[in-house]
Amino acid sequence: MDHTVALQRAAGNRAVSRLVGGQPLSLQRLNGAVPTNFTVTNAVANSAGLTISTQKAWQSSTNVAADLADVEMREHIVFNHAPTTDMPGYAAVVHMVPNMQLAGNILTKVAGAMQGLGGTDDHAGAGFGLYFTAPGGQANLSRGTWTLVGTQVYQYRDRGAGGPWLPLHAAGGPFTITRSMAIDSASHTYQLTFTKTGPGVNVTAGPTVIPLTMDEAISDIAVARPDQTQLWQDLDQEITVTQEHEYHHVSGENLTHNGVPVPVEYVITRPWTTNPQSPNRAMFAPYETLVPAEYNPLIANIRSGLVDLVQTHVAGLAQPPQRLVMIMTKATGGVRQQALFTQGGPGAGPTLRIVFRYGKFGAVDQTARDTSQAGSESIRGHRTTSKTARWQKATVIHEMGHLLHAFNDMGSFQAATVDANVAAAAPLADQPHLFTIAAVNTQILAALNARNYPARWQYAQANPAEVVAEVWTAVMHRRKVPRGLAAVYLAYGGAQNALIIDRLRRRFPHNQLPALATPLDALPHI
Fold this sequence. Notes:
Number of strands: 20
């Protein structure tokens, strides 16, 4: 400011006295000017970018705009809770904007002197943009249904006086800024709606889709389904209540992984012997109880597969499972052959269970003989007994491939079995990430099916989880794996150790495993 303006300001300043904290405070203001007739008009919403812009205007009590050079304005917003709960990126955004501060649930922004008699208020409805995770890894929006409401008041004070801040629109009331995240039941997407209401303003941007990435969806499924406890509880209910079977411990042993004992239990199911049994079920008891002549060969072949895995091939994995339970059954109905991973149980940490259906496991499954790795191995036997033994050992290795997949990468393991039917049957809160995963899995399977792999890989193309288990089985038997299937195995987090890496890297150029951060990264290699 030059000397003349300084003199004019000195002559024009008028002392204004106020009580602050019960004490008189004398402030200097050009000609005693105060802002009047504050309005917010011409609100414009941009749904594509989820932004709202409003025009602010006011006048000077002296009718001289320059007299407001010593008056400054700010926004003061009180949210219904800390905005970073719903918008984790909010704090980072605040740090990027000059004169903006966030303290708990209160946001303030000093806009500067008011002699311009107007300006634009730009609101970004989604923080960093239309991302749950902004580029660079910054968490931006919470995935879920939520509503964030802010009560906005525009205020003014004498520049440099240190307060107090006074409302610019006391008579007109405050403005309300609302962000609402919801799940659209038709499109199975997260949608964010952004509104601003108040005197002269009623505008909405959105609802706008906030797209999920595959990484975010897999992260969500790992949180929603951290293991397969519910599946195990459902199966246990089917065995013990619906089928009226009980568990009978046959034998057990400790296998060793990196010097650590891994308890293994061999269990059969049989119709109740101690609990009341319905007459109809009792009639079938002789047909539904495995006898030693049936289960001893099964145990021998299961054990052969487990010893090979635990003592040889599982070496090099980060951690061993803490308990293995091999369950053999003739139960019918909803009891099927499957592998289940649970994080714990009575006196146990991570537990891997495999349920073997005698009708399928006891002899070579003819439907799978030519279309699966276990069936392919059975063909290499010379007699019926050797074919069956190879079938059973390879089946154990296949099922262990599922469990070690879960042990290595639970999120990708859970995602690998998701299709549109699974997504549609899920609660609404789970559908956005499940439909995102299903769409990617569909792309992967379409690409695999277009390759016309040999028939023995047909079972692998049921879903990405079966790709992982079948590739694991093939590698354990020293069989070549097509590059596309190897890429899917790696992209979906199949278990890795030195043996797996050595076998699979040979399928790629320059004998180097590609960097596959997400399942979609496998597509160029299929």
